[in-house]
């Protein structure tokens, strides 16, 4: 299942995942405030696959799936400005604010894009794990949540194409559980000093 993907943000999370998806055969458009910036052009030159950088509006116009990886505090204003372009799409909230009462931006996106299919994913591991998801012979797992159905299949495909194994936790009613995994990752990887290339494995 190949898709047209809009990646909002060209930081570590957006650039790493966008690279993986382009190299897996998806068509990736990075939305940026400065699509012609040297840093963005250098990133594109290093990607093997179909990838481009455009303004946010241009990138949103073509994408079926949208990864929201801009700074957490910017999502509210961004979603209000681009509400029509976000509505009806598959939206993946990868933003975090670990100092806030609500870590995610799910409710913000729901308010501005009520007909979108919203998922919480790519929020609970460091970008280093997305870049290198194999630990010797062991593949890292990735926990996510959102509505069941065809859109879920698309999100699972993107998790697999990033090199991780998807673990579906449930619908958005359990988003706090997925957020808590991000908090656990920060505690172990950063505060306890175990290193940012730290991941989870689910066994049953």
Structure description:
A six-stranded parallel beta sheet has the order 3-2-1-4-5-6, sandwiched between helices. It is globular, with a radius of gyration of 16 Å. The protein has one domain (4-191): 3-Layer(aba) Sandwich (Rossmann fold), CATH 3.40.50. The longest helix has 17 residues, at 175-191. The mean pLDDT is 97. The chain is an alpha/beta fold and 204 residues long. Helix 2 (38-45) links the parallel strand 2 (27-31) and strand 3. It has helices spanning 12-23, 38-45, 56-62, 75-81, 83-86, 106-112, 127-131, 150-161, 175-191; strands at 4-8, 27-31, 51-54, 65-68, 90-93, 117-120, 134-135, 138-139, 141-145, 165-170. Helix content is 39%, strand content 20%.
Helix-strand blueprint:
Elements: E1 4-8, H1 12-23, E2 27-31, H2 38-45, E3 51-54, H3 56-62, E4 65-68, H4 75-81, H5 83-86, E5 90-93, H6 106-112, E6 117-120, H7 127-131, E7 134-135, E8 138-139, E9 141-145, H8 150-161, E10 165-170, H9 175-191
Parallel strand pairs: 1-2, 1-4, 2-3, 4-5, 5-6, 9-10
Antiparallel strand pairs: 7-8
């Amino acid at each position: 299942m190949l898709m047209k993907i809009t990646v909002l943000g060209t930081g570590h999370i957006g650039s790493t995942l966008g690279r993986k998806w382009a190299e897996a055969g998806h068509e990736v458009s990075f939305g940026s405030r400065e699509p012609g910036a040297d840093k963005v052009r250098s990133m594109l030159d290093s990607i093997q696959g179909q990838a481009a950088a455009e303004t946010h509006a241009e990138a949103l116009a073509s994408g079926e799936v949208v990864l929201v990886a801009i700074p957490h505090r910017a999502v509210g204003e961004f979603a209000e400005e681009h509400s029509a372009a976000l509505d009806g799409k598959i939206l993946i909230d990868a933003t975090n604010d670990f100092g806030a009462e609500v870590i995610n931006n799910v409710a913000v996106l729901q308010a501005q894009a009520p007909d979108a299919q919203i998922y919480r994913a790519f929020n609970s591991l460091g970008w280093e794990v997305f870049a290198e998801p194999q630990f010797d012979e062991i593949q890292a797992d990735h926990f996510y949540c959102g509505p069941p159905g065809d859109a879920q299949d698309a999100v699972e495909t993107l998790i697999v194409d990033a090199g991780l194994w998807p673990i579906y936790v449930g619908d958005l009613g359990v988003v706090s559980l997925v957020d808590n995994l991000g908090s656990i990752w920060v505690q172990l990887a950063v505060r306890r000093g175990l290193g940012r290339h730290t991941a989870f494995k689910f066994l049953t």
